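Example record

The entry below shows one chain as it appears in the dataset: sequence first, then structure tokens.
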Amino acid sequence: SEHCVASCQGASTSVQKGWRGRYWARRRGTAGSMGLKKKLMMQAAAAAAAEAGAAEGLGESETVWEAGDDPLWLLQSSLDAVGALSYDLGNATSGSEPSGDVGGAAATPAAAATGQSKYKWSTTLDAQFVFDFKAAVPKETIGVMCWGRDVVGVMRSEAGAEGVFFVQTVTGAVVVKGSKSMAAEVFSSLLGTALGVFCPKWRVIATGSPEGKAMIGGLSAKDASGRVQLNLGSLTHVLLKEFLPGAHLGEIGGDRASEIFGGGGLSENGRSRLRELGRILALDVLCNNGDRFPLIWDNRGNPGNVMLARGPGKAVSIDSQIQPIDGAQHPAQFEAYLQKVEALVRGLREEGTSVELPEFKRVREKLLEFTTLDVGQTGGIELQKGFLEVSANKAQFSVTKEVLESWRQTLAAYEPPLVGIGAVDPAFVLAVWNIF
């Protein structure tokens, strides 16, 4: 430990080192577990949050909240969406155990599920709820919620700093997520849905609204850790998302990858899944989202931002973002990006259905790294075909200046303002779309 530096000063130093190790283990908690002081503070926060929730009207446990005429909910429903995708996939009977979430962070079940305390003194945190990913089935619709009566338990994902919570209700599972770039995430999700990319449905809930207060109160009352209040209580808005059983690319492993894509050569199911990934790549290029695959970006890729759902393994986009480049402030960078896109699209037009391009080979190699399965050059060409399903068929999609501007206006109308609204730049998306 940093408090127990090894040295060569004799046995007395070794004894001192051991004493210090024991001392700091008591003061700070053992490595990998929270300290007792922090644990007690979280317990106190949980008790205060539950009390505050009751004060906010948790007594109205029968209140049912409906999306109704929420403009973003209506807008999302008006697109050529995938319908009850997560509910259908949640009832599939084959595939890997669901271990990820639609917020992009893998969940690690709490060790406290055993009911044994890591400490001499037990606290209420040792009895906290553990979400059952194997048995969880998505709620059929997130458009209707009863936060007081229906919440069974809540667990925070151990990954992700913004707060992703898995919520079990009596009618199915949902996800509640905080976001520091909510407007950008929502905008890119709308665009993905319009392009035929699988995106779980979502709702934006203002924490200061009647439903928001009921939500924070209802979740806090079931949260022994106090993390709901600590992570979500200070936010102006949160995302309520469909729970999607499945695993992200970094979790599935070679056996599941072979089941999805084909072990002895690409299966028809594998070709379909790769074309779905190709559509996600087209979305990323439109949004300059280099956080997923190193297609035209110099990055390592992020396997946590693509899920392969239960059953046939449909590719689902999670945690999409938009990173626009302001052409007026950064003209050189803006033009350089457009030139990259133009070169990519030109290559796809000329030989995208027959020859694997270098950019897509990089993506295929990253898939090999993530899943330990190489889909081969044929798989790279299937990725390209999926991209071309978007770029070569622009007339099929309602991506126009008027549509994108209306989306931004809808986002900008929220009060209090949605975080990340400055990143919503229809002009940038249109500039890239025109190259497609």
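Notes for this example: The CA atoms of residues 117 and 126 lie 6 Å apart. The longest helix spans residues 36-58.
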